[in-house]
Design brief:
seven-stranded mixed β-sheet, six-stranded parallel β-sheet, Quinone Oxidoreductase, Chain A, domain 1, alpha/beta, 2 domains, globular, 11 helices
């Protein structure tokens, strides 16, 4: 079996395209085996490549969280999909038995894990996952869009809809437009009817974001975005900030928040340690919200939007699986606008 793997942490030089991998088999009655057609990159893949605290790999470790393909075989208890169905994969796996899973909050499961990080990933010809983690999409769907859809859109949907409760006509600030989660947040916020301001250090990315519906744009290079937002909103601020940058932007994000504002985050790419003036927190009655991936209901909701054509991820570039190292190098430069996809078929 062909796949993209690593055997040790490090830089992109550690990535190996192999053709001698062992094919996965159905492990239980509720499993499905998928012949993959395409997989997509996320920043999580770069973090895993470099090494994550508490995460160990067993060489050769298959990379990738996102992907789509065709169901090749199913366990005896599977009724939700059939052989031949074209499906997308929810990369978050839970034990389905803990108190959180039974409440329908799978991402809070103590044994929750993500494909490519805690379990072998999607950048291979065959993948086995529980049937609860796949949903059908249109057979004629764009394979690159389907492969690139789930992780970023599921994360963004939970952030804005479930956690921040974004409403029509509210104002939202999204840092770092161009990446998958930020672009999904832009699309979801516009679907809700919010006013969206995006930031980037690239004027080209800001122009592209405007074409996708962004109402306002800020080149954050050398700019205090919090002060700029105050100036553009007559000191009112925004209702929601999407900040997954962390240390480098946290103070500016809080500076941009208006009263009753909600800051929602799913990461800290510039560093994990942030400082908050608790007096401003309680006086302005802010909410600071963490968010990770999404549950079954949110997965069904975003796939419904995808099948209806309402949410479609922009694609930056498509590579062959054998060109996986080049794809990772592209992601590492942060020059992409949209998702980077690997074709497997």
């Amino acid at each position: 079996m062909r796949g993209l793997t690593i055997s040790a942490h490090g830089g992109t030089e550690r990535i190996e395209y192999r053709e001698d991998l062992v094919e996965p088999v159905l492990r239980g009655a509720g499993d499905v085996r998928i012949r993959m057609r395409a997989a997509a990159l996320n920043h999580l893949d770069l973090f895993l490549l470099g090494g994550l605290p508490g995460v160990t790999i067993t060489p050769p470790w298959i990379l990738g969280a996102d992907g789509m393909g065709v169901v090749e075989s199913v366990g005896s208890a599977v009724t939700t999909v059939r052989v031949g169905d074209t499906v997308v994969i929810n990369p978050g796996l839970s034990d389905r038995t803990c108190e959180y899973c039974l409440e329908g909050e799978q991402p809070l499961c103590p044994r929750y894990g993500i494909l490519g990080e805690h379990f072998p990933g999607t950048m291979a010809e065959l993948v086995v996952v529980p049937a609860t983690n796949v949903l059908p999409v249109r057979e004629q769907t764009d394979e690159s869009e389907a492969a690139a859809f789930t992780l970023a859109t599921l994360t963004a949907y939970r952030m804005l809809v479930t956690r921040a409760h974004l409403r029509a006509n509210e104002r939202v600030l999204i840092w770092g437009i161009g990446g998958g989660v930020a672009l999904a947040c832009l699309q979801i916020a516009k679907l809700i009817g919010a006013h969206v301001t995006v930031t980037s250090g690239s004027d080209d990315k800001l122009a592209a974001a405007r074409k996708l519906g962004a109402d306002d744009a800020i080149n954050h290079t050398g700019v205090d975005v919090g002060r700029e937002i105050r100036a553009r909103t007559a000191k009112r601020g925004v209702d929601v900030v999407v900040d997954s940058v962390g240390e480098a932007t946290w103070a500016q994000s809080l500076g941009a928040l208006g009263r009753r504002g909600r800051l929602v985050t799913c990461g800290g790419t510039s560093g994990p340690m942030v400082t908050t003036d608790v007096r401003r927190l309680f006086w302005n009655q802010w909410s600071i919200l963490g968010s990770t991936m999404g549950n079954d209901a949110e997965f069904a909701a975003v796939v419904g939007h995808f099948n209806a054509g309402r949410l479609r991820p922009p694609i930056d570039q498509v590579y062959r699986l054998s060109e996986g190292r080049l794809a990772f190098e592209r992601l590492a430069t942060a020059g992409q606008f949209g998702k980077i996809v690997l074709r497997i078929d």
